Amino acid sequence: MKFFAVMILLWLLCGTAQSNGAGLFVVNSAIKLTHWVDVIKDVAYGEQDWQRLNVYPQASSAPVVLFIHGGGWYKGSKDQYHFVADALVRRGYVVVIPDYIKYPEGRFPTFVQDVAQATAWVKQHIAEHGGNPAQLLLVGHSAGAHTGALLATDASYLAQVGMQPQELLGFVGLAGPYNFTPTYHQFVATFGRENFAVMLANNHVNGDEPPILLLHGMDDKKVSRFNFDTFKNMLTRHQIPLQTALLPEVGHAEMVLKIHPWFADEVDVGARIDAFVKTQLNATQANASQGASNGQ
pLDDT digit string (tens) for 174-211? Predict the structure, then answer.
């Protein structure tokens, strides 16, 4: 099985297979053949056709991961990331993966608003699928990490759906372009020059953010380390509970693949996410115990 996973990884890392989604189809098909997990597909979280999500349930009261996929804000779909859900279900999580509007039909901030709406759906309905709505973690990769960072830092998005960032257990950013300024014409059109300031996560950090884990690959050729460093420095300045790591010999696509045990070796992104969640749950429990003690 490990050899098979290595062969898939090598194929994925060639440009053609990854760009058209064929590589992810192979990964997901192989995983489905060897490890079955329940999934409820195409649940509506809004009225638009694209506002659909997949739910991977658990038995009862499990922590929840809402995974925001990447794709440069113009491609990708929830169904391509079954391998992420499989990896996290194995660790005991309820997983939700939403679709959201893409360029050119969608421009900033509509895709962020979509994910905010999906987050509110999770808060309201995930208990029906074995999830604990009080233990909701956002995880995003690449463009999805940018969206997740804005949800964690700019309270206006969640406020529109009756929530606030402090209700999140935390946010995990994987290889996110948190503070880039678009130069490529498609990204300029996606965000609009008038939004270049408000699209930067750093411009919203004020000290009210939930705990955050940032991971970046040292072999990432798509998203520069500048984004990791600037976001880390701003969060540190505001004393946000923060964990960070630069992962050696990890590229942009490998970052999300290494969530799954097939592709994890000495760098296990899934294990890092799990450890981060456990840290937050332990802290929450300790704070609750301290509060009860003080109230006696």
Answer: 999 999 999 999 999 999 999 999 999 999 999 999 99
Who contacts 86 (Cβ-Cβ below 8 Å, separation ≥6)? 31, 35, 37, 56, 260
Task: Sort strands 52-56 and 40-44 into parallel, antiparallel or unpaired.
Answer: antiparallel
Residue 295: band (very low, low, confident or very high) from pLDDT cuts 50, 70, 90? low
9 domain residue, yes or no:
no
Domain count for the chain, please give it: 1
DSSP the chain: -HHHHHHHHHHHTSHHHHHTTHHHHHHHHHHHHH-----EEEEESSSSTT-EEEEE--SSSEEEEEEE--STTTS--GGGGHHHHHHHHHTT-EEEEE----TTT--TTHHHHHHHHHHHHHHHHGGGGTEEEEEEEEEEETHHHHHHHHHHH-HHHHHTTT--GGGSSEEEEES--TT----SHHHHHHH-GGGTTTT-GGGG--S-PPPEEEEEETT-SSS-HHHHHHHHHHHHHTT--EEEEEETT--HHHHHHTTSTTT-SS--HHHHHHHHHHHHHHHHHHHHHHHHHHH-
Question: The CATH number of the domain where 44 resides is what?
Answer: 3.40.50.1820
1 in any annotated domain: no
Structural domain harbouring 254: 38-285
**Cβ–Cβ contacts within 10 Å for residue 292, how many?**
9
- Our CA dihedral for 98, 220, 25, 32, rounded to 10 degrees, sits at -80
Query: Is pLDDT above 60 for 77?
Result: yes
Structure tokens at 184: 């490529």
Residues 179 and 201 sit within 8 Å (Cβ to Cβ): yes
Q: Rounded to two decimals, what is the model's pTM?
A: 0.93
Angle at 75 between CA 260 and CA 250, to 5 degrees: 35
